[in-house]
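PROTEIN DESIGN WORKSHEET
SECTION A - STRUCTURE
LENGTH: 168
TOKENS:
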């Protein structure tokens, strides 16, 4: 268990020790039609999610920008880097127990707003504590269609993600 020593620091000093980062990730989601429950991509890095190897962070928000203009409900499975095989892309999620053991968050995005040629969905105030492995600062994620129907990714279309992370 990690020991946390909060004594000796004022509230301002504690806040000044935390770094807030916005990390943009554009996964390479293959052009295809993804049925409900299908894995759309996996093993995508959230680079430098923690400040140090084996560090912790707080996932504060995720914004998704869907250039397919579909906006179907999706969920992200976020893992540390020691287990990332969620199954076969284009099929139902089939993660091994080791991957489930290394999952640090599952977040659903369902509140899409049509902004013209794209849809934007945001999940705010998440507040999940996540930890990377002792050998990496990155976390990994996969995306699953949970819309109840199909999500079609066409040529030149994608879903990009912006992760709002507080690093300690």
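SECTION B - SEQUENCE
RESIDUE ASSIGNMENT:
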């Amino acid at each position: 268990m990690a020991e946390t020593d909060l004594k000796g620091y004022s509230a301002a000093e504690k806040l000044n020790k935390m770094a807030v980062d916005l990390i943009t990730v554009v996964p390479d989601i293959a052009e295809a039609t993804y049925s409900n429950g299908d894995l759309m991509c996996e093993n995508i890095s959230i680079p430098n999610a923690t400040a140090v190897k084996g560090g912790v962070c707080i996932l504060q928000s995720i914004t998704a920008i869907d250039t397919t203009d579909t906006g179907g409900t999706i969920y992200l499975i976020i893992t540390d880097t020691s287990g990332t095989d969620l199954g076969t892309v284009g099929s139902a999620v089939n993660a091994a127990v080791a991957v489930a053991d290394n999952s640090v968050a599952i977040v659903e995005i369902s509140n899409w707003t049509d902004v013209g040629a794209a849809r934007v969905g945001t999940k705010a105030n998440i507040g999940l504590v996540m930890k990377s492995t002792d050998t990496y600062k990155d976390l990994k994620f996969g995306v699953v269609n949970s819309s109840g129907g199909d999500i079609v990714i066409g040529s030149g279309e994608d879903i990009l993600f912006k992760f709002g992370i507080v690093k300690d």
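SECTION C - NOTES
Residues 18-167 form a domain with the Jelly Rolls fold (CATH 2.60.120).
The chain has a mean pLDDT of 88.
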